[in-house]
Design goal:
The protein has 645 residues and is an alpha/beta fold. The protein contains 20 helices and 18 strands. It starts with a strand and ends with a helix. This is Probable ATP-binding protein YbiT.
């Protein structure tokens, strides 16, 4: 569907891509991988038509629809969440307006036998056929299903979009792209603003989607569950692997080993040749050989390799000062914002050395509890921090508290102690600050770079309770590996709020599930939690979600329909309800027209010809037919509801 041929992209003398060619086929699930700055986002922009290549061709057929989700975008205010989502159906909505306009015009006309009237009827039929073909009667249900899947509640649908954070507004944009059903999805870090349940929902959607998907993500599990092809971008070239991400990692290691051997051999050849040229440059008897060697070097296709892999760096925290056995104790803990209760009657204890994951849908109180632990929010009940507990806290706004006038190197050198000071440059390299970049001032760094720097600073502070709120959002996979290994070796207590399943896997020894103002403790790691919930993915948390007033979910009966069957049944019920509503509108229209014609028939002096009688009889027949349809629709609706119950 999309092909690029001999693509070259240059920025101010720096070559990002050199003669790259490949094709995106229907049903491809491509993960773009490579270090930060390799050109992954740039390639998506080129596919989407927002950026052109320096050289080469990008071919996208005219009938191919592309849905592009960038990492950052500008948002427009003035609409509710549902209104904004429905913009995805702009053609359907325009058809609705045209159909309504034609219906209004038909209702006002009395020249039933005229050619223009019949033309109106034909236009209405064509528009209605097009409307039904595009699934116009299902747009509200589709928008609702997608918004719910992405974590919105029905009460959010009527709220203005400007009431939501940037992350939630990004979800609205993602919903619009999903609803447009493009032929190719181009997704740049789509999971950064999603909770675990929403990520699982998006995975299921993309896995069964009939079009192609090209995505950039640092979420290993997300890539593994979706991709069947991995395209690595490295030093201006691409390496195309027809495998998922995990298999690619193995093949990449093999290729890199071969590449490094070839690079080493070539470097030796180059050095030997340069030594020969230097040794015999000024000897007339060797001039021919020297010139030959010089030409050989000029023609040599030099092997380039990415910077050395830093993922094996062994970063250790300073020894954690010993705290008491009881790190955190909560009793009857609650928090409300006005009338909105977020947390209610929480009772839990966190002991020294535990590594706990906070999971649950956004808005269920994870970050609220973290802020209570940090003493940033007032609350009801008891929240006690244990003896000699020293907290290291990472949140998104933590990056804004750095001294802007210091360099990257100075920022870390200020907190580094002991032997770790000799490894500062290696540590910075592992977090994508390399070479001369370490001399940059903090004030010129992007938000993501500041977050990474704040994370490194936190890693080096002598604390015994680490509280990390979404620590991996701006880290690439190698940096996440470094952080995870450091946390595993940390001998203090860890609380992690994260949606990154792969990061949490093997890290947490206990999971706190936030739901319905409560928290529920699950022993074991994140996948133990999933298994304990008897599900392969967290999407069923949304399916089984009960109202906030319900305390215990009703046990499933064998006679109950399973989720997929109930979902399909709900679709049928919604469609039948719309049929009933549509039929009632037609009946009202026929009845209104009959009343109008009966008024005319009661005044014979105003009658012209006999056409009104035939029109009157025809309308009455149409009314009878529609009444019969209405009865059938209602009977079918009753049957469907009975089957569902």
């Amino acid at each position: 569907m999309i092909s690029i041929n001999n693509l070259t992209v240059e920025f101010g003398g720096f070559t990002l891509f050199k003669g790259v060619s490949f094709i995106v086929n229907t049903r491809d699930r491509i993960g773009l991988v490579g270090k930060n700055g390799a050109g992954k986002s740039t390639l998506l922009k080129i596919f989407a038509g927002f950026q052109g290549p320096t050289k080469g061709n990008v071919s996208v057929p005219n009938d191919v629809k592309i849905g592009y989700l960038p990492q950052q975008m500008n948002h427009v205010d003035g609409k509710t969440v549902m209104q904004e989502a429905l913009l995805a159906f702009d053609e359907v909505l325009e058809l609705e307006k045209e159909i309504a306009k034609i219906n209004t015009e038909i209702a006002e006309r009395t020249d039933y036998e005229s050619e223009s009237y019949m033309n109106l009827i034909h236009r209405l039929t064509e528009k209605n056929d097009r409307y039904h073909m595009m699934g116009g009667e299902n747009v509200d249900a589709e928008a609702e299903r997608t918004l719910l899947g992405l974590g919105f509640m029905r009460s959010d649908f009527t709220r203005q979009t400007n009431e939501f954070s940037g992350g939630w507004r990004m979800r609205i944009e993602l919903a619009k792209i999903l609803l447009r059903r493009p032929d190719v999805f181009l997704l740049d870090e789509p999971t950064n603003h999603l909770d675990i349940e929403s990520i699982q929902w998006l995975e299921d959607f993309l896995k069964t989607y009939p079009g192609a998907v090209v995505l950039v993500s640092h979420d290993r599990a997300f890539l593994d569950n979706i991709t069947n092809r991995t395209v690595e971008i490295s030093v201006g070239k691409i390496y195309d692997y027809k495998v998922s991400y995990s298999h690619y990692v193995e093949l990449h290691a093999e290729r890199r080993e071969q590449q490094m051997k070839a690079y080493t051999n070539q470097q030796k050849l180059i050095k030997d040749t340069e030594d020969f040229i230097e040794r015999f440059r000024y000897k007339p008897t060797k001039s021919v050989q020297v010139q030959s060697r010089i030409k050989q070097l000029e023609k040599l296709d030099r092997i380039e390799v990415d910077e050395e892999d830093m993922s094996k760096l062994n970063l250790k925290f300073p020894p954690a000062p010993r705290s008491g056995d009881l790190v955190v104790e909560a009793k009857v803990l609650g928090k409300a914002y006005g009338d909105h209760q977020v947390l209610s009657d929480l009772d839990f204890v966190i002991e020294r050395g535990e590594k706990i994951a906070f999971v649950g849908k956004n808005g269920e109180g994870k970050s609220t509890l973290v802020k209570i632990l940090m003493g940033e929010l007032e609350h009801s009940g008891l929240c006690k921090i244990g003896h000699n507990v020293k907290i290291g806290y990472f949140a998104q706004n933590q990056a804004q508290l750095l001294n802007e006038n210091k360099t990257i190197l100075e920022t870390i050198d200020d907190v580094a102690v002991g032997d770790v000071r000799t490894k500062i440059r290696d540590i910075l390299g592992a977090f994508m600050f390399r070479g001369e970049e370490v001399d940059k001032k903090v004030k010129v760094l992007s938000g993501g770079e500041r977050s990474r720097l704040a994370m490194i600073r936190l890693l080096l502070e002598p604390v015994n309770l680490l509280v990390l709120d979404e620590p991996t959002n701006h880290l690439d996979m190698k940096s996440k590996d470094v952080l995870k290994e450091a946390l595993l070796q940390f001998n203090g207590t860890v609380i992690v709020v994260s949606h990154d399943r792969e990061f949490l896997n093997g890290l947490s020894s206990k999971v706190y599930e936030f739901r319905n103002q409560k928290i529920k403790e699950h022993l074991g790691g994140i996948y133990d939690f999933l298994q304990a919930k008897k599900m392969e993915s967290l999407k069923e948390l949304e399916v089984k979600k009960v109202s906030r007033q319900e305390k215990v979910a009703e046990p499933a009966s064998e006679n109950k329909l399973n989720y997929l069957e109930r979902k399909e049944m709900s679709k049928k019920i919604s469609k039948m309800e719309r049929n009933v509503t549509s039929s009632e509108a037609k009946i009202a229209d026929f009845e209104s027209r009959i009343v109008e014609m009966e008024t005319l028939l009661a005044k014979p002096d105003q009658m012209q010809g006999t056409s009104l009688f035939s029109k009157y009889d025809e309308t009455k027949k149409l009314l009878e037919e529609e009444l019969s349809n209405w009865e059938n629709f209602n009977e079918e609706l009753d049957k469907l509801i009975a089957e569902k119950d």
